[in-house]
Amino acid sequence: MDIVDSLIQGDKRAIARSISLIDDDDPQSHEILKKIYNRTGNAITIGFTGPGGAGKSTLIGNLIPFFKKLGYKVAILAVDPTSPLTGGAILGDRVRMQSTMDDEDVFMRSFGSRGTVGGISKSLRNAIRILDSAGYNLILVESVGAGQLEIEISKVVNMTVVVFSPNTGDSIQAVKAGLTEIGDIYIANKSDIEGAGILYYSLLELIGETPRKPLIVKTSSKTTEGLQEFCLNVNTIVKSNQWIQKQKQKQKQVLDDELKEMVLEKVKQRTLKVFKIKSEAINALLESLLNKTSDPYTVSEELSLLIFPNNNM
Ligand SMILES: Nc1nc2c(ncn2[C@@H]2O[C@H](COP(=O)(O)OP(=O)(O)OP(=O)(O)O)[C@@H](O)[C@H]2O)c(=O)[nH]1
Ligand SMILES: [Mg+2]
Asked: If you placed Cys at 190, which of 34, 105, 165, 312 could pair as Cys (CB 3.0 to 4.6 Å)?
């Protein structure tokens, strides 16, 4: 059977294969994406980020049964560019411990081991489309940290949840270091251990007062405190009108970004080609710059005319 047909029927091997093709930027993945595009746009995506060890994987595993009760079909993507093996395996172990993973319905995969930040967010977007077309309507994306990657991921997903716990001592530093902007919901996790109250109130004080007024909640995978409430809150948010409008805006931004990426790629390809064919002319231009018979503006203009004669792209 054609891989696209298998995908649409929810075949897990076809999903895994398609995501690998995307991760490798294999041309076959572009064909798959073209064919499934009209079946996408139904899934809600939630990114979970925050310091290492804050309890993200365990939390995700424990949220699944609640989301399932609300009628969602759940998939998990663990984005881990640094350690392709351990990232996925850690998530796998943790989540498997939660019996939910005996569950045939949940698809899980670690992802993005080969890419640059820009590359990962692009392939994440496409991996989400694959899962979406295969019938998963809730995709949970785990990533670690507070870097550029998390900011990029937060642009790709519909909602970003930042998870802190009392025993990741650098939590509040992490808040200050740039996680304040990206979260729609902030979690003071591990509410069963000491320091959870302080963490919760620090988050309220630091972030709860900002104009966006993100939601701040307390959870524990150990006592299950806050888990059901979290899922109910998410469910209410994604059904609101305001949310739907916001997602439309986001969708437009995604298309803009994809267009830019595509144009940039074409320009790069063309530039490389022209540099090969017209290497003499280009060398002469560079020479004129070095011996100052020309200037950078003129040289750039002339180079751009070589690449796009008559300004035609
Ligand atoms: N007391 C307590 N411990 C928890 C809770 N949730 C997770 N843990 C423990 O915290 C440790 C880290 O949990 P993970 O779920 O792997 O954390 P993570 O944020 O996914 O970690 P990385 O993926 O490495 O960033 C594990 O030992 C968990 O058993 C909780 O609610 N309460
Ligand atoms: Mg984890």
From this structure: 165
Distance between CA 238 and CA 246 in Å, rounded?
10
Domain segments of the chain as ranges:
40-239, 255-311
Q: Tell whether domain 40-239 is in CATH 1.10.10.60.
A: no
Q: How far is the C-alpha of 282 from the C-alpha of 302, rounded, in Å? A: 9
Cβ-based neighbour number of residue 92 at 10 Å:
17
Q: Looking at ligand 1, which atom is closest to the CA of residue 220?
A: 31
pLDDT tens digit string along 126-178?
999 999 999 999 999 998 766 778 888 888 899 999 999 997 665 566 565 66
Atom number, ligand 1, closest to the C-alpha of residue 61: 15
Query: With a 6 A CB cut-off, is 56 part of the ligand 1 pocket?
Result: yes
pLDDT at 90 over 60: no
What is the best residue among 58, 64, 153, 199 to mutate for testing ligand 1's pocket, by most ligand atoms within 8 Å of CB? 58
| Calpha distance 100→102 (Å, rounded) | 5
Cα–Cα distance for residue pair 66/227, rounded to 1 Å:
8
